[in-house]
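User: Please fill in residues for this 170-position structure.
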């Protein structure tokens, strides 16, 4: 009887911890690929359907990866900060959008990105390889990689300080 009560209390405590983790606002570096790891290669596609690899963008300078979707409200909230950072760091930092394949097509991504982020390099993650390699918890996830190819920042949400994240890669 006592063991049953202890097990039940343990299960309740575990459930409360999980609920708190799920309901608390996401902060930078709480999820996703571990800080300090080498940014992994991942098979993706260009928006016109040609095979590509995320590894092709690393090693030339800092890179900001944003995992996003056309329908994502968090991504829309992040747009002003990303646009400002693209203007501020033009020619110094490469910005790469990795569009997830959930409920969108490469064509929809082409149309949206041409209007909202034309200076960003865009890839389409048709098979979820990049999402898996970067342990992406949700759209609106940002990863900053330094010139050496190491992850220096991860963040989730529409209110990230992209400028401060980029400074970690400089």
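Assistant: Residues filled in for all 170 positions:
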């Amino acid at each position: 009887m006592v063991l049953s009560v202890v097990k039940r209390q343990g299960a309740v405590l575990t459930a409360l911890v999980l609920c708190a983790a799920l309901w608390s606002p996401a902060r930078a570096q709480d999820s996703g690929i571990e800080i300090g790891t080498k940014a992994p290669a991942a098979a993706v596609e260009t928006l016109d359907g040609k095979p590509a690899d995320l590894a092709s963008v690393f090693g030339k300078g800092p890179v900001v990866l944003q995992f996003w979707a056309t329908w994502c409200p968090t991504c829309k909230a992040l747009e002003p900060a990303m646009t400002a950072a693209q203007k501020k760091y033009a020619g110094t930092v490469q910005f790469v959008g990795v569009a997830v394949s959930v409920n969108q097509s490469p064509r929809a991504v082409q149309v949206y990105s041409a209007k909202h982020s034309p200076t960003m390099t865009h890839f389409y993650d048709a098979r979820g390889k990049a999402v898996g390699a970067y342990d992406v918890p949700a759209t609106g996830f940002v990863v900053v990689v330094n010139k050496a190819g190491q992850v220096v920042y991860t963040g989730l949400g529409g209110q990230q300080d992209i400028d401060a994240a980029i400074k970690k890669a400089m």
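For context: Residues 2-23 form the longest helix (22 residues).
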